[in-house]
């Protein structure tokens, strides 16, 4: 489970950095079905691209920790879920978006529960290894003192 969590954290981080960079560089051209809403919305899109790039860097930081901090995983997964909830709210307020936005919304709502479920896997694994090493060390100390 810890290996899966690490892989998913890396995958999320790399994907988000790339997606954020594309949105930052290309603005509204990166949004399927968006058309050209003008400079104000393009500016907003590029701003959010930079934020998303930073969000991806946060996932990469998490993936590099040992153990992977469960609180950080839950925080980042919760933020991702809020993004999907925002898409749902938009759908309810303005109608059905482009099919690609629906796919993204599905990912944003489906992945966070998996991250929450896996969030403590690495901490548990590291803790179990430490306990086993300490136990082995105590057993060795007992056998040499007899």
From TrEMBL:
Protein origin, superkingdom: Bacteria
Record protein name field: DUF4345 domain-containing protein
Pfam families: DUF4345 (PF14248)
Transmembrane segments: 7-25, 45-63, 75-93, 99-120
Keyword annotations of the record: Membrane, Transmembrane, Transmembrane helix
């Amino acid at each position: 489970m810890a290996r899966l969590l690490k892989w998913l954290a890396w995958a999320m981080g790399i994907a988000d950095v790339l997606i954020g960079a594309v949105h930052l560089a290309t603005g509204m051209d990166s949004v399927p079905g968006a058309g050209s809403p003008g400079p104000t919305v393009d500016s907003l899109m590029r701003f959010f691209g930079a934020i998303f790039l930073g969000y991806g860097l946060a996932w990469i930081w998490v993936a590099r920790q040992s153990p992977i901090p469960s609180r950080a995983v839950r925080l980042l997964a919760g933020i991702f879920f809020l993004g999907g909830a925002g898409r749902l709210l938009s759908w309810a307020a303005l109608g059905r978006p482009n099919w690609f936005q629906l796919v993204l919304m599905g990912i944003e709502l489906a992945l966070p529960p998996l991250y929450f479920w896996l969030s403590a896997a690495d901490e548990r694994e590291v803790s179990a290894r430490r306990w086993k090493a300490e136990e082995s060390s105590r057993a060795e100390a007992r056998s040499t003192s007899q």
